[in-house]
Amino acid sequence: MVEENGSILLVENLRKKFEENEILKGINLRVEEGDLVSIIGPSGCGKSTFLRCLNGLEEMDEGVVEIAGVRVEKGGEQGLSGREFRRRTHEARQKVGMVFQQFNLFPHRTILENVAISPQVTQGISREEAEEEARYLLGKVGLSDRMTHYPSQLSGGQQQRAAIARALALKPKIMLYDEPTSALDPELVDEVLQVMRDLDREGMTQLIVTHEMRFARDASDYIVFMDAGNIVEISDEDEMFTNPKDERTRKFLGRFL
Amino acid sequence: MTKSRALVWLVCLALATIVADGADGQEGAGGMPPLRWGAAVDSNAPYAFYGPGNILEGFEYEIIHAIAKEMGRKPQFVSNSWDGLIPGLDRGLYDMVICGIEITPAKSAEVLFSNPYYVTYEQFVTAKGTPILRSLDSMKGKKVGTLNHTSAMAMLEKVDGVEIKPYEEEINAYNDIVNGRIFGVLLDFPIAKYYAQPNPELEFNGPPFGQITYGIAFSKSNQALCDEVNQAIDRVIASGEMRDILSRWGLWTEMVAGAFKQPAAPSCPDSEYRDFVKSHHQYEKSLWDRICGYAQFWPLLLRGSLMTLQVSIFGMTLAIALGFSLAILRVYGPWPLQVLSSIYIEIIRGTPLLVQLLIIFYGLPNIGIKLHPLVAGILGLGLNYAAYEAENYRAGLLAIPKGQMEAAMALGMSHFQGLRYVVVPQSFRIVLPPVTNDFISLLKDSSLVSMVTLLDLTGAYNRIATQTFDYFGSGLLVAAIYLLIGLPFVRLARWAESTMAVDHRKSGNRPGRFSLPVPFRKKGETNGN
Question: Among partner residues A45, A94, A106, which is closest to B404 by beta-carbon distance?
């Protein structure tokens, strides 16, 4: 059962179908505060869907997700009513930051406004206060000189760093990244990964769906390998790459080794 | 003037029958209320029309004044379009209609008619020098013009082999004889007298055809007033005043004299007719002189322009507000509202604006909703264009990548907040060009409000053209005014577009005037992985 012991993310028996197609077949995972976890696996294995179920962008069919202290449960005896489910999902999102492959910055607002808007809208923080915090965060990701630009005027790497700053504006307890560097030109990847490394040093809990094996290996506390809707293997980063236990892991990583 | 007068007439007929018992007589409420009479003045010399200096005149105008004097009441004129005259009766806009309406069994079923105040016949007109016609049958195989919904039309329909060319305005019909488009025109004698006789290239041809009687129309429920007016008509005839009026207008014929049992000779010179010919038929003037002559109409043009502008701006405001709400409901609302919104859009888009306008103005009083013409005009245009705006906005909303709403939700915004702060502001700039387009379109469609008694720019055009007999010069003038009104809005929208497009500019790229303020989506959006 669930232990109240500082796990910032606890997932039990998470299931998700798209029509008849079972994408997630009962996922169990526990993440401790401060961990940096990479989720890898072949395309279509369900890793992005898994991530999106954690903050309710996809609604799970069944299972338990306890994230940043908010428990959401569906199906079974303790399943929540629809209304309560939505209420808790909404509550969880306030404490969970998310970064998308396509950045999804708001193109009609400047970078500063992109970062400052959500605290104003969702937490009623004053504009001055929100923008001050936004300036601090943008400084942190190295975009102090781009605050008045619009997203389309920035490079992909800059846009993704801005998106990270935007997600941080709500002071989340955990950050989710959905292939944050997949849409970037290769030379822009590192600047984004560096931001994530910095956050790791500050103790941020981060869950990253990625194809950057090198980053996964270098920066992760451990790596989750998914295949066909299941978590196949959870290993220490070095062990995963040097001595994978499962045949499927070996096959997948074979391409990178 | 109207796009489809036949259609309008049908709707009016339907409405009139529905409403037949709606209105009560307006008199008797203590003292003597004014005698309100309705007429269409945008075409009809010598009936009731605006003469030089925009003063109302005409033989019907004088007859009404004579009748009102007999009754000891003050006449009050209410203007309406020809097609709206009968529905306006039931709507209570006025107590009676005098507008060259022929007493026919069909019309008697709809309205109450007074005794005839004028009796006349159909006069055939051809180009000068055409062989003389003995009977209607000799028109076989020829193109003959007339006006819609007239007894001349009914008469022509009974003749085999005549190709009938229906016209909206008599002056156009007569001009087409000169232009060689038609062989001749069959119309009521007074019309032929005023519009064809002064033209040196036309001549009366053939004998008087048939007999038509003009009556004053009342609402079916207004028998008392009808009786009172009948007595007044009798006295006006008996006193010789009727003969004086008709003589001055050159309309005293043997036929009318016989019907009223009075001497056949006119009692005085046809001074009014001569004045009319002198002031209206300007065959010798050049186009430029005529256009300069329009300067005297500037107050009318200004008034019409302001009305057009007013109706268009308020109509568009309503259309945008309502259209936006409909689009939101259709895209994001719960399913019953989605369905309702779709139904509204389909119904409004699937029916003519003109019909909607007429229902709002003439139909709604039937269920107790009487709207001011201006309100009805704005409402009609606004409700109609809302359907088109809704589709614009729907397209705009759907064009925003799904990731935008997801990002907003992931940032803890509610669905509503995501719309309010993220999706809607972006869709606004996408829909700006089509909305501008629709505004220009609405500006032009606003000419339909002349159907609900408003005098807009097109109404002014009609009035000027029928007074000056010049559809060409005055038409160019009015078209130019429409252009001038529309242009600033086009410029404004262009400016707004380029201003708003600034955020889509790639650095180093100037926002071209033709740059599309569209997709922010980069490659494909990926969902499940």
Answer: A106
Across the interface, do B503 and A107 touch by the CB < 8 Å criterion? yes
| Contact partners, residue B60, CB within 8 Å, separation at least 6 | B39, B47, B48, B98, B99, B100, B117
**Within a 10 A sphere around the Cβ of B364, how many other Cβ atoms?**
16
| pLDDT per residue as tens digits for the range B457-472 | 988 888 787 777 777 7
| Confidence bin at B286 (pLDDT 50/70/90) | low
Residue closest to B520 by CA, chosen among B496, B495, B503: B503
d(CA B431, CA B320): 11
Encode chain A in three state secondary structure.
Answer: CCCCCCEEEEEEEEEEEECCEEEEEEEEEEEECCCEEEEECCCCCCHHHHHHHHCCCCCCCEEEEEECCEEEEECCCCCCCHHHHHHHHHHHHCCEEEECCCCCCCCCCCHHHHHHHHHHHHHCCCHHHHHHHHHHHHHHCCCHHHCCCCHHHCCHHHHHHHHHHHHHCCCCCEEEEECCCCCCCHHHHHHHHHHHHHHHHCCCEEEEECCCHHHHHHHCCEEEEEECCEEEEEEEHHHHHHCCCCHHHHHHHHCCC
Is A117 part of any domain? yes
d(CA B143, CA B133): 14
CA distance B252 to B264: 8
At B412-470, the pLDDT tens digits run: 898 889 998 999 988 888 888 888 889 999 998 998 888 777 888 988 888 787 777 77
Closest residue by Cα to residue A55 from A160, A178, A141 = A178
The ipTM value here is 0.90
User: How many CB pairs (< 8 A) connect A and B?
Assistant: 107
Q: Select the CATH number that applies to the domain covering B119-213 from these four: 3.40.50.1820, 3.30.230.10, 3.30.420.40, 3.40.190.10.
A: 3.40.190.10
Distance from CA of B315 to the nearest CA of A (A): 29
| Topology (CATH level 3) of domain B25-116+215-284 | D-Maltodextrin-Binding Protein; domain 2 (3.40.190)
Strands B35-39 and B75-79: parallel
